[in-house]
Amino acid sequence: MPAFSRFLRYFMTVGRLGSIRKAADHLNVSASAIDRQILNVEADLGMPLFERLSTGLRLTAAGEIIMAAGTGWQKNLAEVRSQIEALRGLKRGHVEVAVIDALSKGYVPRTIHALRDRYPGITVNVRVLKNDAVRLAITEGEVDFGIFFEPQTFRGITVRAFVDVVLGLLSTPGHPLANQREVRFSACEGYPLIVPADPLAVCQQVAVLEGMTGLSLDKAVSSDDIQMIVSLVLEGLGVGVLTSLDVITEVQRKALAFTRISDPILRPMTLALCSSASRTPSYAAGAALAEFESGFAQLGYPASLEPAIVPPIVPGTQTG
Questions:
Q1: Which of 85, 147, 290, 314 could disulfide-pair with 90, CB 3.0 to 4.6 Å?
Q2: ∠ CA 157-161-164, rounded to 5°
Q3: How far is CA 18 from CA 41, 56, 246, in A?
Q4: What are the angstrom distances between the C-alpha of 171 and each of 61, 185, 210, 222, 228?
Q5: Of residues 32, 48, 52, 37, the one with CA closest to residue 7
C-alpha cells in the first residue's frame, strides 16, 4: 500500500478512536509506527494534526480538514477500483441505494433479484428512509442513487426516470367504494378513515383536501407507517387514504381496492429515480441504474394497479 494511503488509514483510525493505542490495537500494528507516520506529516505541514490531551487525542482544525478530505478520497478510490474491475471484465462492485418505505416490497426486490441474476458479482445495500432522507442521501453522496417523491425543486439531482402517482381511497372488496375507479374526496364522508400522518409525503395532500372541502371527517386512526395503514384497512377498520404506489401488491392480488380521488385541486405526485448530478456512477451503479430504469414505468398510475405479469418458472432454474 502506498505510503500516503497507509498514513491516511492510520490517521483516520486515530481520529475516530481518539487514541494511538486503540488505533494500534484496531489495526494490529505497533503504536510507534502510527505515531511516526503522524509526526512525519505534522513536521512536513508545519502544524499539529491532533491536540494531545490527558484524555486522548483530538483533531485540530488542520486535522479536521484532512479527515474530511480522507473520507472523500476513500469513496473515490472505491469507485475507481470498481471501474477498473469493470474494464478487466470482472463485473463486480457494490451499489448503495435509498428508497422510500412504499418500495420495500414488489418492484425494488424484484429488480434487485434481476440485477443479481445478471451480475452475481455486484452486491447491493438498500436503505429504506423517509422521503427527505432519501434526497439528502443522494445529494450528500451517501448512496449511488435513490427513489423519492417530488425532486423538481432540488438542485444537485439528476432525474433518470419518473412516473405519476395519484392519491386515492383504499377499501376492502365489497365496500361501496370498491367498484368505483374515481370519486371526489367528499365520497369518503361518513366512513371511518385511516389517514397518513407526518412525515409521510401524502399527509400534506390530505390536509389540502380537508381544508378546501371543509368536510367533517371521521379520522378513526392515523399512522406514519404505510404498512400499518394497509393492515388496518385489511382488518376492516375503515377506508384508507394512500397513493397508488403504496398499495400495488394488495390491489394486484385483489385483497384491496384502490379508488382515485379526482378533485381538480389535486395534482399527481412525481416519483423519480435520481442520482447525484456531481457524481459519475461506477460500473456497478450504472448497471443497477439501467436495471431500475427499464422497469420504472410500472410504478406509475394506472400501470401500477394492473394485474402483475409473473414470468414463468423454467424447470431447473433457481427462484430465490
A1: 85
A2: 105
A3: 18, 6, 45
A4: 58, 14, 19, 16, 14
A5: 37
The separation between the first and the last C-alpha atoms of the chain, rounded to the nearest angstrom, is 39
Q: Does the predicted model carry a pTM greater than 0.85?
A: no
Helix (H) or strand (E) holding 280: none
Give the whole-angstrom CA distance, residue 15 versus residue 192: 56
| Cell reading at 44 | 512536513
Residue 127 above 90 pLDDT? yes
Percent residues over pLDDT 90 in the chain? 61
Residues 6+ apart with CB under 8 A from 165: 149, 243, 244, 245, 268, 269, 270, 271, 299, 300, 301, 304
Task: Give Cβ neighbours of residue 181 (< 8 Å, ≥ 6 apart).
Answer: 259, 260
* pLDDT tens digits along 147-168: 999 998 778 899 999 999 999 9
Q: Can you tell me the distance from the alpha carbon of 316 to that of 320, in angstroms, rounded to the nearest whole number?
A: 12
Give all domains of the chain, ordered by start, each with its CATH number: 3-84 (1.10.10.10), 91-146+277-305 (3.40.190.10), 167-267 (3.40.190.10)
CA 281 centroid distance within chain:
16
Question: CB–CB of 107/299 below 8 Å?
Answer: yes
Instruction: Identify which of 266, 250, 270, 269 has the alpha carbon closest to the alpha carbon of residue 258.
Output: 250
Cα separation, 59 vs 38, in Å, equals 12
Beta-carbon contacts of 281 under 8 Å, excluding residues fewer than 6 positions away, are: 144, 145, 275, 289
Tell me how crowded residue 299 is: count the other CB atoms within 10 A of its CB: 24
H, E, C per residue of 89-132:
CCCCEEEEEEEEHHHCCCHHHHHHHHHHHHCCCEEEEEEEECHH
pLDDT at position 47 over 50: yes
Q: Which helix (H) or strand (E) holds 265?
A: none
Question: How many C-beta neighbours within 10 Å does residue 147 have?
Answer: 27
What's the full length of the chain, in residues? Answer: 320
Q: How far apart are CA 63 and CA 71, in angstroms?
A: 12
Amino acid (1-letter code) at residue 13: T
